[in-house]
């Protein structure tokens, strides 16, 4: 079965009983790992349990196709249902999976960790079409969904962020979920959320968050954004390479650039309407950080409104192209950075 985006979170929390095989796939590996963990622990709370959890590489099943059925149909020596996790799966697993789905276990669950499978993938199509299987895409969430996750996580630490905090974090801690959680934990540590005398709820301010995260959380994003806006092509490409090397997905980079140019355009339109540049920029939510404020002002002055509109449209177009065509997203994003940084 194919799980619609709006239903994914509910499905992960409570999978359909007939889904005896669940495929998780997509470029957001941190989100994939989180969802696999949530689903898996509903079968076995300890995913390292040697009796009730079996972890296999897809290559092991490809070499011995009968092993999938053998593992999935076996009864636990310690009682309870078993979990079979298959890693690094691609289309070469499809044949063995189709055979297993003819008679899947009614008790044990097979979780498959796939790669970034496109719409033509035989493995993905198999799980989308079979009534006893499900396919869950793991793409970067919208900024709104990320904001909800951030607010929930900070609340768990006893922190009450204001709206500017959440907006800023959602716009900057994107593309790598594990990194995002590490940064949120760093914020909690900084304000003393783990101290015995910590008094919750703690009102978390934007200034505190920007100071903490600026120590490294979004440095490469800022380097890329402002190098591109200033026309420094070599510096922009170096920052892009650093972000991708850190595991940040290209859609997150594209959205960060979209967000920056939208902020430039909003400020430009306000200045054209007669507002002072400093006043216009301060109305942004959140306003430009003081360390990059002068660069932001300079780019508002240097970029014309038509050029900003064209840049936003081009970035929107490449995001859509990367999602729908399977085009080499890193190449396309790098080419776009070079084209815009002129």
Give the tags.
342 residues, alpha/beta, Rossmann fold, Zinc Finger, Delta Prime, domain 3, 2 domains, 17 helices
Describe this structure in words.
It is a single chain. Helix content is 57%, strand content 10%. With 342 residues, it is an alpha/beta fold. The strands form two sheets. It has a five-stranded parallel beta sheet, sandwiched between helices. The relative contact order is 0.10.
Number of domain units: 2
Q: Largest beta sheet, briefly?
A: 5 strands, parallel
User: Mean pLDDT, nearest integer?
Assistant: 90
Please give the order of strands in the largest beta sheet: 2-3-4-1-5
Question: Would you identify the CATH architecture of the largest domain?
Answer: Up-down Bundle
**Derived structural class:** alpha/beta
Span between termini: 47 Å
At the fold tier of CATH, the topology name of the largest domain is Zinc Finger, Delta Prime, domain 3
- Hey, roughly how much beta strand do the residues contain? 5-15%
**What form results from the Cα inertia axes?**
globular
Number of DSSP E strands: 7
What order do the SSEs take from the amino end to the carboxyl end, as H and E? Answer: HEHEHHEHEHEHEHHEHHHHHHHH
Quick summary of this structure?
The chain has helices at 8-13, 29-43, 58-63, 66-73, 94-101, 122-129, 143-156, 163-172, 177-190, 206-213, 219-230, 233-245, 250-272, 277-282, 293-302, 305-325, 329-340; strands at residues 21-25, 53-57, 83-89, 109-114, 133-137, 159-161, 202-204. By secondary structure, the protein is of the alpha/beta class.
């Amino acid at each position: 079965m194919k799980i619609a985006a709006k239903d994914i979170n509910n499905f992960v929390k409570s999978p359909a009983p007939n889904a005896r095989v669940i495929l998780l796939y997509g470029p957001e590996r941190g989100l994939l790992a989180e969802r696999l963990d949530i689903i898996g622990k509903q079968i076995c709370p300890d995913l390292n349990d040697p009796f009730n959890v079996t972890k296999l590489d897809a290559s092991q099943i490809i070499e011995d196709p009968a092993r999938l059925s053998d593992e999935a149909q076996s009864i636990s020596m310690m009682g309870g249902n078993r979990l079979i996790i298959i890693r690094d799966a691609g289309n070469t697993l499809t044949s063995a999976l189709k055979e297993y789905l003819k008679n899947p276990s009614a008790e044990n669950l097979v979780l498959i960790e796939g790669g970034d499978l496109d719409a033509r993938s035989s493995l993905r199509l198999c799980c989308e079409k079979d009534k006893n299987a499900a396919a869950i895409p793991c793409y970067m969430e919208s900024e709104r969904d990320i904001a909800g996750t951030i607010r929930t996580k900070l609340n768990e630490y006893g922190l009450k962020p204001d709206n500017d905090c959440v907006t800023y974090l959602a716009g900057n801690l994107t593309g790598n979920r594990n990194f995002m959680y590490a940064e949120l934990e760093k914020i909690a540590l900084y304000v003393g959320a783990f101290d015995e005398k910590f008094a919750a709820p703690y009102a978390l301010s934007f200034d505190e968050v920007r100071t903490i995260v600026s120590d490294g959380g979004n440095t490469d994003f800022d380097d890329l954004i402002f190098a591109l806006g200033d026309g420094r092509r070599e510096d922009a490409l170096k920052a892009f390479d650093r972000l991708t090397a850190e595991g940040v997905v290209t859609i997150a980079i594209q959205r960060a650039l979209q967000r920056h140019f939208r902020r430039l355009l909003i400020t430009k339109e306000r200045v054209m309407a007669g507002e002072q540049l400093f006043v216009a920029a301060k109305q942004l939510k959140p306003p430009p950080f003081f360390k990059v404020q002068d660069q932001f002002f300079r780019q508002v002055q240097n970029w014309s409104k038509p050029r900003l509109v064209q840049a936003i449209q081009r970035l929107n177009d490449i995001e859509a192209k990367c999602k729908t065509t399977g085009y080499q997203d890193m190449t396309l994003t790098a080419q776009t950075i070079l084209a815009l940084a002129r």
